[in-house]
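Lab notebook, entry 211. We have the chain sequence and a SMILES string for flavin mononucleotide, and the next step in the workflow is to get a structural model of the bound complex before anyone spends time on docking refinements. Request logged below.

Task: model protein plus flavin mononucleotide, output structure tokens.
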Amino acid sequence: MDTLECIQKRRSVRRFLDIPVEMEKLGNILDAGRLAPSAGNLQNWGFIIVRDPANKQAVAEACARQMWVAAAPIIIVVCGQSVKGKKFYGERAEKLYNIQNCAAAAQNMILAATTQDLGSCWIGAFDEELLSKACGIPAEARPMVMIAIGYAAEKPKTPSKHLLEKMAFLEKYGNRVADINAVLGYTSHHVRKGITKVKEIAEKAHIKLKQ
Ligand SMILES: Cc1cc2nc3c(=O)[nH]c(=O)nc-3n(C[C@H](O)[C@H](O)[C@H](O)COP(=O)(O)O)c2cc1C
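Result returned:
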């Protein structure tokens, strides 16, 4: 699966099969988080792996009644090391970089799960105090994102997604383009996909003609 395919395939999964996640796959997921970009390459994050049933229950209870979380084979809690960020970048780290660093790591992990045929869900609705207590997160760190991971027991429908035309602006904020594909030309993913398909058909026809 290439990266674009992986991004298109990913869906939030909230029901999981009672099958453990292979350690090798978990290792690849954690490594994908480790390799994410971070401001000044600070890498000021910590990834807590939660798989003990009692601990998963405590973590789920911190998630605003989202008890399905407890049934996920693995939960990863992504924590930002807030004090370290603040030491280097002050208020900007507190308000932005620490959150962005953890979000980059979390999205890398989610894509690594998808590409290994695992389902996952980003969880942001939790009580920080309860979660910190459940996972022993000290005051100098802050839980930012939780990711539930496992083999999917559901095939979620693609939720409606806004068209690119609604969010892509040319040069200035708000400067919408009526036909973004026309602007992107050959670099457009859709156009490239079409060209690849036509090439494949032409190549097959060429082989047939030669036979
Ligand atoms: C910042 C953030 C917080 C989220 N929090 C939750 C959550 O607490 N519970 C949940 O079930 N899904 C949560 N999600 C997942 C979204 O509901 C989901 O991404 C959205 O509905 C779009 O569906 P998709 O992921 O299949 O594209 C969160 C996603 C993000 C990015």
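Notes for the group: The chain has two domains: 3-150, 164-210. Worth checking against the assay data. The pocket of flavin mononucleotide is lined by residues 11-12, 14, 66, 121-125, 156, 159 (CB under 6 Å).
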